[in-house]
Amino acid sequence: MSDMKEKMCENTRVRFSEMLASSAPVPGSAYAGALAAALGHMVDNLTVGKKKYAAVEEDVKSAVGRLKELRLALIDLVDGDAESFLPMSEAYSISKDDPNRDEVMENA
Questions:
Q1: In this predicted model, what pLDDT tens digit does every residue of 42-65 receive, in sequence order?
Q2: Are 105 and 91 in contact, with CB atoms under 8 Å apart?
Q3: 62-83 pLDDT, tens per residue?
Q4: Which of 29, 43, 64, 90 has its CA at 20 to 30 Å from residue 96's CA atom?
């Protein structure tokens, strides 16, 4: 992603998936985590109130709040995830023959 001003989460799903699939160094771990938390939250919501799961309902209700917090926190980290990876991706582009490459990579 050459323009870091573009907010990751403000892209359409299609655009975001295209960015991830490209050769651009766009990490998606925070977004993937947010989606995983959202799916867990969905499962919790489908579980609460079911007689079959009455024995674990309090645990499930407890998880709902935590998963919502995690999802929102991870969404907030999506852009930081991409921005923090940028120095490392730039370091990878340095020629392997460059005597400063190891130091630059270590610092990144």
A1: 999 999 999 999 999 999 999 998
A2: yes
A3: 999 899 999 999 999 988 887 8
A4: 29
**Per-residue confidence (pLDDT) for residue 1, from 0 to 100:** 43
Which residues, other chains included, contact 74 with Cβ-Cβ below 8 Å and sequence gap of 6+?
30, 31, 33, 34, 37
Residues 90, 106: Cα–Cα separation, whole Å: 12
Count of other CB atoms within 10 angstroms of residue 79? 18
> Buried b vs exposed e over 7-43: b needs ≥16 C-beta within 10 Å?
ebeeeeeeebeebeeeeeebbbebbebbeebbebbee
| Cβ contact 104:94 at 8 Å | yes
Q: How do the domains of the chain map onto residue ranges?
A: 29-86
Residue of 80, 75, 81 whose CA lies nearest to 37: 75
Alpha carbon distance 94, 99 (integer Å): 10
